[in-house]
Amino acid sequence: MHNNDPQEKPGVPLAGEYLKRYEANLRRMPEVKAWRTGEFDAGRPSALKDYFGAHGFGFCSHCQGVGLAMNEDGMGYKAVGWDKDIQLFEKCDFCGGTGVLTEKPRS
Ligand SMILES: [Zn+2]
Question: What is the distance in A from the centroid of ligand 1 to the CA of 78?
Fold first, then answer.
């Protein structure tokens, strides 16, 4: 786990467990949207990470529980290259690609 050379980050495709978690997010979207609208109207924090926090998912808010690193603007996942015609994405640093935060956040 200490071999953490940023040059040598293998990408992973949006498939398998990542795709499963991504699809779970999509299914959750209507509920999340409703929650965020309600919280926003009530003047409370209504970001996606607040939703995860409020619901105690233990999800990694950095990658929205998917396990792939997000782009800095929060739109989509960070592509790092291609494996033939399959696009590869960077694993989320914060949860190690698990989508779940098991450790305390690093400072
Ligand atoms: Zn993460």
Answer: 12
